[in-house]
């Protein structure tokens, strides 16, 4: 297994297949608590634009994407409707007496590990690759996780994220998580 940047359309397509498999609409309710789930669906064009702005980080085994951790810059905040409330909070929310929007940050656009490879440290390895690649350029890595996604909350906390805000919108109740690299 290797952790690397996505390099071609085939790898991007594999991200979308893994995303679809783990989307909340495709994970049975009884498995969501133990396995986690994804909320956002990207289309190929958006994922390609995200990859063009910064190569996406993937876990690959035998040329198969078994995990991914997507980089989403501020400029993509308007392109995914379900994320607009989170980006709106960034405009006004303060962290250490400074508005979040004024920090150099990016959003973890989504992280997912194939069910057959969970519990093997790949989640942490993907995030450590993010820190290695982006901590000299950014102060913070931000994301949001559904409060009902207990597996994801536990995994993010283990890596070093902390919950800085909780809010409810029309879709769910969310924790905004922050990983401070400074």
Shape: globular
Name the beta content range: 25-35%
Number of helices: 6
CATH superfamily: Gcn5-related N-acetyltransferase (GNAT)
Oligomeric assembly: single chain
- Give the helix/strand class: alpha+beta
Number of strands: 9
| CA radius of gyration | 15 Å
Largest sheet: 7 strands, mixed
Mean pLDDT: 93
Report strand order across the widest sheet: 1-2-3-6-7-9-8
Task: Specify the CATH architecture.
Answer: 3-Layer(aba) Sandwich
Helix content class: 25-40%
Low-confidence region ranges: none
Q: Which features does this protein show?
A:
single chain; 182 residues; alpha+beta; Aminopeptidase; seven-stranded mixed beta sheet; 6 helices; 9 strands; globular
Structural overview:
There is one protein chain. This protein has 182 residues and is α+β, with helices and mostly antiparallel strands. The chain has a single domain (2-180), classed as Aminopeptidase (3-Layer(aba) Sandwich). The chain contains 6 helices and 9 strands. It has helices at residues 9-21, 29-35, 44-53, 84-92, 122-134, 150-159, and strands at residues 2-5, 57-61, 64-72, 94-95, 98-99, 105-113, 140-146, 162-168, 173-180. Strand 4 (94-95) and strand 5 (98-99) form a beta hairpin. Helix 1 packs across helix 3. The mean pLDDT is 93.
